[in-house]
Amino acid sequence: MTDAERRLWSLLRGRKLAGYKFRRQHPLGPFVLDFACFKYRFAVEADGGQHSESSQDLRRTRWIEAEGWQVMRFWNNEILANSRGVTETIVRAVEERAALIGLSPAPHPPNASHWAPPSPAGRGTKRQ
To answer: Exposed, middle or buried, 26 (CB in 10 Å: 0-12/13-18/19+)?
Structure first.
């Protein structure tokens, strides 16, 4: 895993992100998703510079979406520099996805009203 993938996995694993269960390196057909929220058919991909304007990535995304999944991509530098913004974007997108496919969003952790993604320094913060 890249540094960005390790960072993102530390934020997603163990239902840390608003109670959503993510899997790492989840196989789907001929591909392996970086991170997958299987219940909501939602994939998160961490991309480095080698993915810039990649026709392979476009074909891959189209195939995954044709299987009923939503794919969200983030650049590695964005994950490392703005982890909070990335995780907030993922939570909103999964909640929208849940509504779109007619499923209830994940039950948030017991302190969900105070939930906030960890700060870039890795320490959690609580909203009041």
So the answer is: middle
